Amino acid sequence: MQRYLGWLGRITLNALFALGRVCVLIADTFHWLLLAPIRGQGLRVRSTVEHFVEYGVHSLPIVSLICFLVGAIMAMQASYQLARFGATIFIANLVGVAAIREMAPLLTAVLITGRSGSAIAAEIGTMKVSEEIDALKVMGLNPTKFLVVPKFLGMLLAVPCLTILSTFIMIAGGYCLTTGVLGIDSERYIEQTSKALVMKDLVTGLTKSVFFAIVICLVGVYRGFQVEGGAEGVGRQTTSSVVTSLFLIIVVDLVFTTIFYFA
Amino acid sequence: MDRTEDYIIEVRDLTVKYGDRAVLEGINFKVRRGETFVILGGSGCGKSTLLRNLVGLMRPYSGQILINGQDFTAMSDERRVEARKRMGMCFQGSALFNSMTLADNVALPLREHTRLNESTIEIMTKIKLELVGLSGYEDFLPAELSGGMKKRAGLARAMAMDPEVIFYDEPSAGLDPIVAAGLDTLIRKMQNTFNLTSVVVTHELASVRLIADVVCMLKSGRIVELGTIAQLEASENPFVRQFFERRPEDEGGQSSEYIHAVTGLE
Question: Would you say residue B243 lies in a domain?
Fold first, then answer.
């Protein structure tokens, strides 16, 4: 019993410490993102653009390909049920709404987690192991300003942009399959899609994608700074950054889907 | 003769703890301007911890670290950044930024802390690299260099802002004797040419004999001896004698302890 209580206490304490560290990280990031530029302490624009290109532009091919394929898959799966009722045209509604509200933001976030979230954790972790973070501090350069904020801002811009594109591509995937394979008339499909979608769908998807971006970047950074020891520590924290990030993305998704469902 | 302005660093009653365990206790010393001050000790004696405190990477539990008469531990963040512009540090693994070329590494502090134009920065970078014997390597990435060259590049970066004091963490660790001696000569040269103060953490006796003006010997978090190299060589302290004579830890009389440690029996 005593051992169980001790275990519970340790877990609670560790969780509270971790929460504290996360809060400090968030506060620090927003300080250097919002307050410091106003006070004239600068923002690293060039580095931000470089990160935006890395996270956004360079992941465009893989995100496009996967979203296109998933769009086609969704259309096929929808047709499997809808064809029984002779309602194949409603594939347009299903694919459109699912892509814009759910699948495109989620899939983009998952891909960026695997591609860039893990890279952030590994990069910062390696820098910590090789004393590069210490070197920055000793030079009087703040690691948050220097490393975190450009990544954060780059991610914050890249993920929503990618989400918009991947929404279109996913719908295009559904369109190609439905018109090409299932023989639905192209104009009817487009018309049906545009009737199905409203502005609120786009707002839902984009709101989610902004929070996904925050989660991916902060989890990567946090795990990176948590690295202790050598290469093994980097590996462990990189893995755990992906797992944590995916979990939190699903949680955030659930929260916002609930909010928009009732709102 | 002993004016406070003569001293660039002064450590008063420094105590550092990891949790409840004190790793440094009651450390007191002064570093005179322009001298090479060596912190010497075996593995795990707290010398790296002491260095991390001196450059402000760790906060001490108690005590003061005065740099140019100002308490480094109690400064505001802005003042600490200012103070840091006047100090440089060479890391054990050089800690060069792997994604940047040598020139960018050296230029980084200049680009971030000064408003010099790009052509001036380029010239200054060349001068610093020339100083450590690495001219012509501007466009190399750290991964393309040998260990000794990386350390030299690290020194060039530490010198970028023309600091008053440079901290070296194990400068000759992991280098062959010839390259290590070259680095020692470089440390000496920097000190002579620029009247630079150097604080060197090391356990290499050979390099201590070459570079040290004052040696501070640590054991288990306390200073056991402080003085010139000649004074240390003449010291009666058994630990200092053992260290300088490179005698191994006494094995005799420990067998009972060993049995106790292994079996738990008295």
Answer: yes
Answer whether residue B42 is part of any domain. yes
Number of domains making up chain B: 1
Residues of A in contact with B87 (CB under 8 A): 138
Q: Which of A130, A140, A141 sits opposite B95 (nearest CB)?
A: A130
CATH for B60: 3.40.50.300
Residues of B with CB below 8 A from A234's CB?
none
Separation in Å, CA B148 to CA A49, B122, B172, B173, B207: 35, 23, 9, 10, 15
Q: What is the pLDDT of residues B83-141, one digit of tens each?
A: 888 899 999 888 999 888 999 999 999 988 888 899 999 999 999 999 888 888 989 99
Neighbouring residues of A182: CB distance < 8 A, sequence distance ≥ 6: A75, A79, A88, A91
A184-194: burial string, b at 16+ Cβ within 10 Å, e else: beeeebeebbe
Measured in residues, chain B has a length of 266
Structural domain that includes position B30: 1-85+200-250
Contact A141 B92 (CB under 8 A): no
CB A249 within 8 A of CB A106: yes
Residue B47 lies in a domain: yes
Parallel, antiparallel or unpaired: strands B70-71 and B62-67 = antiparallel
Q: pLDDT digit string (tens) for A212-221? A: 999 999 999 9
Contacts of B19 (CB under 8 A, 6+ apart): none
ipTM of the complex: 0.85
Does B70 reside within a domain?
yes
